[in-house]
Automatic annotation (TrEMBL):
Chain's role: NDH-1 shuttles electrons from NADH, via FMN and iron-sulfur (Fe-S) centers, to quinones in the respiratory chain. Couples the redox reaction to proton translocation (for every two electrons transferred, four hydrogen ions are translocated across the cytoplasmic membrane), and thus conserves the redox energy in a proton gradient.
Compartments reported by the entry: Cell membrane
GO molecular function term, any single one: NADH dehydrogenase (ubiquinone) activity
Xref: InterPro entries: NADH_UbQ/plastoQ_OxRdtase_su6 (IPR001457), Nuo/plastoQ_OxRdtase_6_NuoJ (IPR042106)
Membrane topology recorded in Swiss-Prot or TrEMBL: Multi-pass membrane protein
GO cellular component, one term: plasma membrane
Pfam families for this protein: Oxidored_q3
Primary location group: membrane
EC numbers, comma separated: 7.1.1.-
Name this protein carries in UniProt: NADH-quinone oxidoreductase subunit J
């Protein structure tokens, strides 16, 4: 087992554990922390795959923006009075645990018995190749989408300003 497989297993366990804890924990603040760990682990998996750009976007968008959005939502609402009631059907929790455990065993069996080539092929989704494609071949489409998004932002500001007056 090489170092890449060890890190893959570590990141996969952290992502799965964070996801399960996000569902199982009772306090919303603990759920947000477990969600952050899960997002970081997924970003680590992207880095292992050689997709640095997607990993950075994962960190900036999900770990940064979405988590801050949840924290602000938690701060703005009265979440102390809201509790999660226990599930009335306890057998569903056990059945879902058995199903998830079975899926995990099947996935681990498939992962450890994969026949991967020994020579790594270069991944085309690096930052350099995305930049060359975006600013080379698709530059006109990139500029068009930038103008369209700017016009939409200006329109949203104008509409919001008219409603405020």
């Amino acid at each position: 087992m090489n170092g890449q497989m060890i890190f893959f297993t570590l990141f996969a366990v952290i992502a799965i554990s964070g996801s399960v804890l996000m569902i199982a924990l009772q306090k919303i603040s603990h759920r947000i922390v477990s969600m952050v760990f899960s997002f970081f682990a997924v970003a680590g998996l992207y880095f292992l795959l050689g997709a640095e750009f997607i990993g950075i976007v994962q960190i900036m968008v999900y770990v940064g923006a979405i988590t801050i959005l949840f924290v602000f939502g938690m701060m703005m609402t009265e979440h102390r009075n809201i509790g999660f009631e226990p599930d009335p059907h306890k057998w569903q929790r056990g059945l879902s645990f058995v199903g998830v455990l079975t899926l995990l065993i099947i996935m681990l069996y498939g992962i450890f018995n994969m026949d991967l080539p020994n020579t790594p092929q270069p991944y085309i989704g690096t930052v350099e190749s995305i930049g060359i494609e975006l600013y080379g071949h698709y530059f006109i489409a990139f500029l068009g989408s930038a103008f369209l998004l700017t016009a939409a932002l200006i329109g949203a500001v104008v509409i919001a300003r008219k409603e405020a007056e």
